[in-house]
Structure formats: C-alpha cells, structure tokens
Amino acid sequence: MDIPGHPARKGALKLLDAVLRRGETLDVAAHAALQGLRSGPDKALARALASEVLRWLTDLDALIDSATRQPLPDDAKPRAALRIMLAGWLRLDTPPHAVIATGLPLLSGGPRRLAHGVFSTLVKQGASLPAVPTLPAAVMERWGAQAGAIAAGLAVAHFPRHRLRPGNLQRHERGVRSRDQHMEAGCDCHLVIMKRAILFGWCLLYAACDIATAKP
After folding, report:
1. Which residues in the chain land under pLDDT 70?
2. Could you count the other beta carbons within 10 Å of the beta carbon of residue 83?
3. What integer pLDDT is reported at residue 208 of this predicted model?
4. Cα 103–208–136 angle (5° rounding)?
5. In the chain, is it the N or the C terminus that has fewer CB atoms within a 10 Å radius of its CB?
6. Cα separation of 212 and 208, whole Å?
7. Can you tell me whether residue 181 is helix, strand or coil?
8. What whole-number percentage of the chain has pLDDT above 70?
9. Is the pTM of this model over 0.85?
C-alpha cells in the first residue's frame, strides 16, 4: 500500500521525465503520467509539484549542487526526486518530515540515502529560493523585454495556496478528508490554473516548459 501523498510524487516524477527527457508539454504528458492517480487532489498535487519544479528548475538545481560534493547528472533520479522534494517544501509549504516521508520512497538504496542527506542539509541551512525564478540565458533572450515580467508571473503560485498549507496537506495525505472535499479541492485547483492561464494568454502555462527545454 502506498504512503498517502506518495502517488502524487510518483505522478510528478513521470510528468517531469516526460517534459525534461522527451520534450513534451505538461498537458500532453499528463494523460499518461497521471493515469494511475484516482483522486482529483492527487492529480492536482502532482501537476502543482511538477509545475513548480519546472518554473524554479535553475534555482532548485543550484541548491542541490550546493549540498553535494560533485554535481549530480541532470538526468539522475536522485536529482529528480530532490527537485520534487524541494519544490514541495519551498513552494507548497509541505513540512520537511512530510516531504521526506513521501519523497524518499521514490528512491532506494544509496540514492535514497544521498537524497535524504542532501535534503536534510538544505533544511538545516535554511535554504530558500530567490524572489523570482532565475531564467536561463536562452529564455531571457527569447522573451526579450518581457522576460522580467514573465519571471515575476512565474513566481506566483498557480494553485490555491490555502488548500495546500501544511494542515490541509497533512489531512489530505492521512486520508482524513472526505471524498467530496477532495474533489472540491481538486476542482478548485484546476479552475484557478485555468483562469490564470486565460488571464495571461496561456503564456505562463507553458513558460515553465520553455525554461525546461532551454536548460543546457
């Protein structure tokens, strides 16, 4: 039996693999990557985690590299798991103990111990993200004068933060909330994402994938 909250992390890992390795958009990748998730909130959480990783990819990788003796390969599974764990902690306000409980099962053996050590080190150091995402040079050049405004937009959470605060996350991941409440939270999340995407002319919805594909 899966640890509550772990299926969403597995879904996020599949989403990121599809975007970063195969060059798919989140929308295209979601159909296959999230098939195994039955609940609306799990699907919404998986997309939220993947989206935050893609928006903050450069900065998350910088944090990871600061806590390792040698840089991990870009496609190493421990790096992917750590990106998700850090996004959950720094962007979704998930408590570190919950991040460890739901994120480390993505790995096993030595990679699991490595990820645990890196994450614990960053928590002890009080790691943080900058006010806005650091954009790769290729993205800055492509977006031109609009790069600063779009980066600022990427820093805004594209999901209802009050739904994913520690208390609510813990209740969700312990399976305490009712099915109706789960569905309400999932629907609210998708509605917010849709409304904001329309508001920004879909620019911000795909900006994260643009960043990911431009990363060296």
Report:
1. 1-2, 157-216
2. 26
3. 54
4. 105
5. N
6. 6
7. helix
8. 71
9. no
Q: Tell me how far apart the alpha carbons of residues 67 and 77 are, in angstroms, rounded to a whole number.
A: 16
At 31, the amino acid letter reads: H
Task: Determine the residue type at 136.
Answer: P
CB 208 within 8 A of CB 49: no
Yes or no: say if 123 and 98 are a contact pair by the CB < 8 Å rule: no
Residue type (1 letter), 160: P
- Residue ranges of alpha helices (H) inside 67-178 are 77-90, 96-103, 109-125, 137-143, 147-154, 166-173
Residue 30: its pLDDT value, please?
A: 87
Report the Cα 216 to chain-centroid distance in Å. 20
> What would the pLDDT profile of 55-70 be if each residue is shown by its tens digit?
999 999 999 999 999 9
